[in-house]
Design brief:
Deoxyribonuclease I, Chain A; 5 helices; 14 strands; alpha+beta; six-stranded mixed sheet; globular
Length: 261
């Protein structure tokens, strides 16, 4: 049977998260698969990490030490695993792992941040993010979908709608809420993928997965919903629940989950 309880978490450094209750969280929630982003682990260190009950661990590390990186921890072995998008300009930052299970592909992704403003007051990496990365990532998951349904999850670094962040108007031109980034999320939905949380909870407000470390933002719930589980439309009937685990600390992001029937 394919995994049914899936959790995704941008841990903002796995070593830091381990000091803040990561293993207690894993033991409490017991997902079938845990997808991680921003592990900040280099390839020479991955053998140092083992988690009880998760004998199958897959790591995609950035070439630059202490930067980016993704991982999949699974109770059961996938049929196959693919690292990256197979495109050199995208694949040195360890941002994608695709695991094939019996009934679907599970993809963890850490989408590049469009970053701070350049001299033209545009996010510096916006064109790369929206014209290259987003296009090629969507092509990747659509290619997988030609074989079987796809679940992709992770930090997509975009708040899709105004309902997905506390202060939409002053953030219109900031990374994560530009018109260009939001349009690329529209393209995901137009390609027949479903935002599982918003499908189940279309009107839910003040549900965020990331908060700045500044100005007590988390305590005041001034946040953004940047972390998602998106699936092929055919899997919608299998949704049992999609949750934002905003009570879980240990990172500036909280985990999000998808449970399938």
């Amino acid at each position: 049977m394919s995994p049914q309880k899936l959790i995704s978490w941008n841990v903002n450094g796995l070593r830091a998260a381990l000091k803040k209750g990561f293993e207690a969280f894993l033991e409490s929630e017991q997902p079938d698969v845990l997808c991680l982003q921003e592990t900040k682990i280099s390839s020479d260190l991955v053998d140092n990490f083992a988690f009880l009950g998760y004998p199958h661990a897959y790591w995609n590390c950035a070439a630059k030490k202490g930067y980016s990186g993704t991982a999949i921890l699974s109770k059961t072995p996938p049929r196959s695993v693919q690292y990256g998008l197979g495109i050199e300009k995208h694949d040195n930052e360890g941002r994608v792992i695709s695991a094939e299970f019996d009934d679907y592909f599970l993809v963890t992704v850490y989408t590049p941040n469009a970053q701070g403003h350049d001299e033209n007051k545009r996010p510096r990496r916006l064109d790369y993010r929206t014209k290259e990365w987003d296009v090629d990532f969507l092509a990747h998951v659509k290619a997988l979908e030609a074989t079987k349904p796809v679940v992709f999850c992770g930090d997509l670094n975009v708040a899709h709608q105004e309902i997905d962040l506390t202060n939409p108007k002053p953030n219109r031109k900031n990374a994560g809420f530009t018109d260009e980034e939001r349009a690329r999320f529209d393209a995901i939905l137009e390609a027949d993928f479903v935002d599982s949380f918003r499908h189940l909870y279309p009107d839910a407000t003040e549900r965020y997965s990331w908060w700045s470390y500044r100005a007590g933002a988390r305590k005041r719930n001034i946040g953004w919903r940047l972390d998602y589980f998106c699936t092929s439309k055919i899997l919608v009937e299998q949704f049992a629940d999609a949750r934002i685990l905003d009570q879980v600390e240990g990172s500036d992001h909280c985990p999000v989950s998808l449970e399938l029937k």
